[in-house]
Amino acid sequence: MRFIAPLEIKTLQSDNDDRTFTGYGSTFGNTDRVGDVVREGAFAKSLEGHKDQGTMPSLLLHHDLNRPIGVWTEMREDAKGLYVEGRLTKGVRDADE
After folding, report:
1. 96: enclosing H helix or E strand
2. 21 φ/ψ angles, rounded to the nearest 5 degrees
């Protein structure tokens, strides 16, 4: 079993805090706790649909549609998995925490 790479969070402690982060939302070939394995190409159709529509998926806390916490600024599938970049919204409690 392979482990998921850590999420790299970049936070500046200043008035110009951009609240951005980068990392992998999912990596390929890992078995989760219920036995599911994400394979290469799993995100391609969804990402292409968003690209065609000029949209991005919602950035949510715990996949909860009632808890948006920011915006995705980049999302792409590469050889490792689903690479993401995002920005947390200042003033949103869940994002601030």
Report:
1. helix 93-96
2. -150, 160
Per-residue pLDDT of the chain (97 residues; tens, 9 = 90+): 455 555 555 544 445 578 899 999 999 998 888 999 999 999 999 999 999 999 999 999 999 999 999 999 999 999 999 999 999 999 999 999 8
pTM of the predicted structure, to 2 decimals: 0.80
Q: E-strand spans in the chain?
A: 8-9, 20-27, 59-60, 68-77, 81-88
User: Which are the contacts of 77, defined by CB distance < 8 A and separation ≥ 6?
Assistant: 40, 41, 42, 43, 44, 47, 83
Sequence-separated (6 or more) residues with CB below 8 Å from residue 44: 77
Question: What is the DSSP track for 42-58?
Answer: TTHHHHHHHHHHT----
